[in-house]
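User: Sequence in, structure out. Go.
Assistant: Echoing your sequence, followed by the structure tokens.
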Amino acid sequence: MSDQSYFRIASISKVFTVLAVLLQEQAGKCNLRDPITRHIPELRDRVGIDTIDWDSITLETLASQLSGIPREYGQSDLTDPLTDRDYGFDSPSSIGLPPVDGSDVPACGRNRAGYRPCTRKGYLGLMSPVEIIDGFTKRLPSFQPNYKATYSNIAFVLLGFALEDMTGLAYADVVQSTIFNPLGMKRATLTKPSDSEGIIPNTTNDWSADIGTYGP
């Protein structure tokens, strides 16, 4: 290990997502109180009586973990046999949970044979009727916005999509051009460096995982 080594910092990268949004607000491209539907208009068509009211969720509530939306989709889901083994049981029904209908299993992520990372195109339901937005947006909110804090990785996926809408750039390019380059962070990257340069834990790890939209 040296001062040139790479570490995968996982959710610490959420700091960069929030900073990137704040910089876009400073540049006049958004307001923290914008509803997320302003930047991801596809969500407007996904509002129902028992579903998440996307118009009431703002950039600020997403960034503050106050949105009340579920934590995950397509990752660490109990319908995923890999997740079940990580937690030490065979299936949800083996620990007393009701059986899961196949249509409720996320269509991307770690939940099916032949791992396919979730992408924005799939995430917003533009590939098939059972893609992420069709599944995720049918789920109930955990809480109403601003009621209490609840950790959500999905919130930061949506913020990443919003940044792409504001700038016309890919999320990685937004962070590179607005944060890494101005600060001279030459050894920071959103793409996997060579294994020889990385600090890779000698246990189960995500060093080589392609996590798709979970990158933000």
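User: And one key feature?
Assistant: The radius of gyration is 18 Å.
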